[in-house]
Specification:
By secondary structure, the protein is mainly beta. About 10% of the residues lie in helices and about 40% in strands. The chain contains four helices and 20 strands. It binds FE2/S2 (inorganic) cluster.
Amino acid sequence: MGLSRKYGTAITEGPTPADATGQAPLPYPDGWAAVAFSEELTRGKVLTRPLAGEDVVLYRLGTGALRAVKPYCPHLGAHLGLGKVDGEDLVCPFHFFAFGPDGACVRTGYDTAPPRSPLGQYPVCEVNGAVFVWRHHDGREPDWTVPEWHEVGHRPARSGVWEMAGNAQEVIENSVDLGHFATLHGWKRAEMGGPVRYDGAEFRLSMRAHESAPVLGDFTVDVRVEGYGLAALHADVHTPRIGLRMCTTVLPTAIGPNRMQLRQLNRLTFDEPARLPAPLARAVSRVATRV
Ligand code: FES
């Protein structure tokens, strides 16, 4: 998988534009939030990721199952992100207390009876190549899911992650801001395919953009978007004139006040690229990059 990753810390070192307004930051979203790509969590791996102003510790058991836990050991508070996976257990780095898949302490480093203090676990799921953790401000259990999306083409997704100023809510709202596709992204003209449809934590919309390019002339770009909570957008992009299909998955995650990590997975394919003559193929390539 081609990766362009940056888990930088630059934005935590100074005020963001939103901080500078002095206004209260938006609340952290409830629900699922992406905290890693699946392939970052190989068996036995332990990762620490920021989520809503706190650390979340992620690890993959020997069986391949994932766990997400609160960062501090219930014994004396060591950071479990420095721990190790031993088979099906997470072992704290300080006094070697070990915690089983259900979070219960199963042994101590002193060979004494394990105490009854379990790890604080978060619901975690893995779908579409990403790892999602459920967090709710009042501790509510998950009441919606992130569905599995279809894929296009046979190549692995290209993925990237960026840490930046902003809020997950703004990313999701962007998908229904028709105007910015012309002003910011340079689309010639775009229209909605109908009203936005909402169903619980989900929404769906479609739009059509009218574009033109050298050699190709005028063409349309059809876009279908599905949104899930403030966690995930999935867009299907189809350009019938040139047989281009693209799936893009956008995963904004609040990590601190006015700060987020933005993950993206992209897949792109052409229906029948072999039929295109060379000049047209080059034009297609330029247009695809632009789209
Ligand atoms: S602090 Fe974790 S075992 Fe003591």
